[in-house]
Specification:
about 450 residues; alpha/beta; two-stranded antiparallel ribbon; 13 helices; globular; disordered N terminus
């Protein structure tokens, strides 16, 4: 048997490379810690602004109260409410603030005003996180929403529909279209799924992997006499890690069970719930760790009959200081935060191991493209972060800032989630203080 620096061990069509010995030499405890730190990111977009007097807590600190944010009360310890956050790059060049603000929602970039093909934006924070957080997963990211529509044409006073209907941008000219059919998303994630067949297949693979490891150990032992002292030490390190891997392979297999395939023709509210369920399923099955979700397109015209509101959301948002309109808008906003709270409940039910849940390890950023639907301002935006981000986010409080940049918030979140950076978007130059633990 010949030996080289690129020696491979194994048989039956499977090989293990010796140069990777050191990379396998992690203890089971370290492996468990890595599994527990399944850091995830979700962007949760709300259209048409918020009734801010009923959103903004009166005082800073952990005792915050807010009528609209009340659905998050069960998750207060995992919630960070932020006031005084601006996204000035979202300002329009004369009308079109819904689309301009939505284009800048996760990019903090002043988009080019065009209804043609010459769109121009920046990369979004989710896409910067995806290669890191979702490394090795089936999908780098998922782009989901309740409302469809093409990414071409004029959607808002000269602004392309690409800005109004996409918050995920792979690059300056590459908006990522969202999927709006829960059934299509399910089929994409779990095409041909059969839990019994999957269990049998996983068991077969388990036996196969165990056989490959046995062969690798036997062949590695046979190499010992051909190795120098230093390489023998490396080989011993390798064999230790392979035996630990063998023990893990023999542990019981958990089958990912996605549940029932969603129905077609769901109502707006039912689509929202189905999409949130799919986010939780994708996280539970560890298919991805990055998701964007749009609860409507920019300037959404959805009615909300599920809460007794038949008028268009967008029309109501131009409230003209009408108390009746603001009451209905507050109802819509409270329902929207109820959807966010539903996501929090689903994440809290996912066991990440070592006493951690997916809610502990996820950062859910929630905001809107504008502050108020009548004034179309991009200052003092409604911002809430739900989830611990792997223990990195200082949740459980309300923080008030003075003209802080949204881009600085994203810098902080990226740093906490494992993508160190000092600049982002048009105006991000630092990690916003008070966001991260420590």
């Amino acid at each position: 048997m010949s030996w080289s620096r690129r020696r491979f061990l194994g048989g039956a069509g499977a090989m293990i490379a010796l140069p990777l010995f050191a990379s396998l030499a992690r203890s089971r405890r370290a492996q468990g810690a890595a599994a527990a730190q399944r850091k995830r990111f979700v962007a949760f977009y709300l259209p048409c602004g918020i009734v801010m007097p009923r959103w903004t807590p009166a005082a800073e600190g952990p005792a915050w109260t807010s009528p609209i944010l009340a659905p998050l009360d069960p998750y207060r310890s995992h919630t960070l409410v932020l006031s005084g956050i601006n996204n000035l790059p979202g300002r329009s060049d004369g009308g079109g603030d819904h689309a301009a603000g939505t284009g800048a929602f996760l990019t903090c970039t002043h988009v080019r005003k065009t209804a043609g093909a010459d769109i121009l934006n920046g990369p979004s924070v989710d896409q910067l996180l995806a290669p890191i957080l979702s490394e090795g997963r089936s999908y780098p990211s998922l782009e989901l929403g309740t409302d469809g529509g093409a990414a071409v044409g004029d959607c808002d006073t000269g602004y392309s529909c690409a800005y109004a209907r996409s918050i995920a941008w792979a690059g300056p000219t590459s908006p990522l279209p969202k999927q709006t059919s829960p059934r299509a998303v399910f089929d994409r994630l779990f095409a041909g799924y059969d839990p019994d067949a999957s269990a049998a297949e996983l068991a077969r693979r388990q036996r196969y992997r165990a056989s490959v490891l046995d062969t690798a150990i036997d062949q590695a032992d046979a190499l010992r006499t051909a190795l120098g002292r230093t390489d023998q030490a490396k080989l011993d390190e390798y064999l230790t890690s392979v035996r630990e891997l063998e023990e893990r392979v023999q542990q019981p297999i958990e089958v990912c069970r996605p549940g029932e395939r969603p129905a077609e023709g769901l109502s707006f509210a039912a689509r929202s719930r189905a999409m949130i369920d799919l986010i939780a399923i994708a996280f539970s099955c560890d298919l991805t760790r990055v998701v964007t979700f749009m609860l409507g397109n920019a300037g959404s015209g959805n009615a909300h009959p599920h809460i007794g509101i038949t008028e268009s959301h967008h029309e109501l948002s131009h409230h003209m200081m009408s108390a009746a309109n603001n009451d209905k808008l507050a109802q819509i906003n409270t329902w929207e935060i109820g959807e966010l709270a539903y996501l929090a409940s689903k994440l809290a039910a996912i066991d990440d191991g070592d006493g951690q849940t997916a809610l502990d390890n996820t950062a859910v950023f929630c905001s809107s493209e504008i502050e108020d639907g009548d004034a179309h301002r991009h200052t003092n935006l409604p911002v809430v972060v739900v989830g611990g981000g792997g223990g990195t986010i200082a949740t459980g409080t309300h923080r008030r800032y003075t003209n802080a940049a949204m881009a600085d918030l994203f810098i902080a979140l990226m740093n906490g989630l494992g993508r160190p950076t000092t600049q982002f978007g048009d105006d991000g130059t630092r990690s916003l203080p008070g966001i991260l633990v420590g």
